[in-house]
Amino acid sequence: MLEFTLCSMLTILPDYLIRRYVQGKRIGHEITLFSVWYELRWGITLCAILTISLITVIFYFHPATKQSTLIFRTLSVIPETAGRVDEVNVANGQRVAEGDVLFTMDNARQTSAVAAAEQKVLEIDAQVSLAEANLATAEAQIAQIEAQLEEAERELARTQELTDRGSSAVSQRDLDRQTARVQSQEAALEAAISNRAGAAANLDVVLPAQRASAAAALEQAQVELDKTIITAGVDGVLEQFGLASGDYLAMLRPAGIIIPDDVAEGRLHAGFDQVNAKVIKPGMLGEVACVSNPYEIIPVIVVDVQDVIAAGQLRPTDQLIDLTDRARPGSLTVIVEALYPGGLDGLIRGSKCITNLYTNNHDKVASGEVTGARAVALHAVDAMGVVHAIILRFQALMLPVQNLVLTGH
Fold first, then answer.
1. Strands (DSSP E) found in 217-351
2. Helix%, strand%, coil% for the chain, nearest 5
3. 334 pLDDT exceeds 90?
C-alpha cells in the first residue's frame, strides 16, 4: 500500500490533475466512477508498473523475512540405564549447576556387583601373598637340596678315591649307592628349580594379569553404579521435569530438559528467499522487530551466511531420490547479531521476529568507483531502503493487532 501510494503521486495524481485542470474535465461529468479507468488509464497503468518495479527492487536489494527466530538449544536428561527412580533432588523450573545431582535410581544390583568385584580383587591380593610365600619356600628347598647335593658329591668323591686306592673299607656297592644318591639329589634340584620358576611365573605374570582383570571389572562395576546418579551436564534451567520416587525410567526416555545458559546469546537465525543469495553478505546492516517486544526496532548486522540450503541435503537410503518429491525450494539461512552490545538481551529466547536487511552502496559511490547512471541507480537503491524501514515500523505497530485481534486469539 505504501509503495502504491508513493507511485500514484507520480502517475495517477499528475494524470488526474492534467485532465481536471488542463483539459477541463469535471468530476461527476466526464470523470465518473464508471469512467475512471478510461479517463485515467495511462496513470493507472504506469502506477501499476512502477509499483511492481519498486516492490521488486526494494525486496531484492533490501531483503526481508518473517521467518527469523532467536534460536536456543536444549539438553535432554536421559539416564544411561533403565531402572526405578529412588530419590529426586530437584524440582521443575529449578536452576541447576553443572554436576548437581538431579535424581538417583535404584542401585542394589550395581552395588552388589561392585562389592563382588572388590572381593575378587582382595582374593587375588591374598593369592599374591600366598604366591610370595610359595616362592620363598621354593627358594629354601633349592638351598636345602643344593646343600644335600654338595654333601652327596663329597661322599661320592671320597668313596671313589678309596676305591681307586684299592681300599677294603668300601665296596662297589657303597660306590653305586653314593652315585645313585648324587643323581637323586641332582634330579631333586632340577625339580625344585622348576617349582621356583612356576612360582615366579605365577607371581610375576599370572596373578598380575588376574588382578588387572579384576580391577577392570571393579572399574566397570563402579561405572555402572555411577550411572544410577544422574547429574546436570551444564548450567541452566530444568524444564518439563516431573519425576517422583518410584517412577520407572527406560533408556532413551528423557526425564526432563535443561535449557543451558551458554547458548550463543545475541544471535538470531533468519531464513531469506534464495533469490536474495547474491545480495546478502556478512557485514550488511539490518533491523529486527519481534513479537515478544513489538514496539522496539533493534539494529542488527549480518555475521554469517550459511553456504548450503537445507532443502538440498541428501541422506542415503534404499531408494533413488525423485526431485519432484522436494517441492519446497528451501531458504537461505542468515545469522545476525545485535549491532550494539546487549541489543537482543531483552528478547525471550525462541521469539519470532521480522528481519529487514539493507544494501549499502554509499562507500562505493562516494569513492568514485562507479559513476554516471550506475551511480545514480545505486544511490536510488539505497534511498529505497527508507521505504522498507517505514514498512517495518508499520509492521511493528501492527503486530499486537494482528496477533491479538485479526488472528482471533
1. 229-231, 236-239, 248-249, 256-260, 267-272, 285-290, 293-305, 332-338
2. 50, 20, 30
3. yes
103 beta partners: 88, 230
Phi, psi of 272 (to 5 degrees): -105, 160
Residue 263: HSE in the Cβ half-sphere, 13 Å Cα cutoff? 20
Which tens digit of pLDDT belongs to each residue from 33-54?
677 677 777 777 887 888 888 7
Strand order in the sheet with 248-249: 229-231, 101-105, 83-88, 248-249
**Ramachandran region of residue 376, left (φ > 0), alpha (ψ -120 to 50) or beta?**
alpha
DSSP label of 65: E
Q: Give how far the C-alpha of residue 45 lies from the chain's centroid of Cα atoms, to the nearest Å.
A: 55
Using alpha carbons only, what angle is made at residue 26 by residues 24 and 31, rounded to the nearest 5 degrees? Answer: 115
Cell of residue 13, nine digits: 495524481
CA–CA separation, 162 and 167 (whole Å): 5
| Angle at alpha carbon of residue 157, lines to 156 and 161, rounded to 5° | 115
Report how many helices (DSSP H) and strands (DSSP E) the chain contains, helices first.
Answer: 9, 14
Cβ neighbours of residue 206 closer than 8 Å, sequence gap 6 or more: none
What residue type is 148 in one-letter code?
A: Q
Q: What is the pLDDT of residues 227-243, one digit of tens each?
A: 888 898 888 899 888 88
Residue with cell 488509464: 41
Residue with cell 536428561: 77
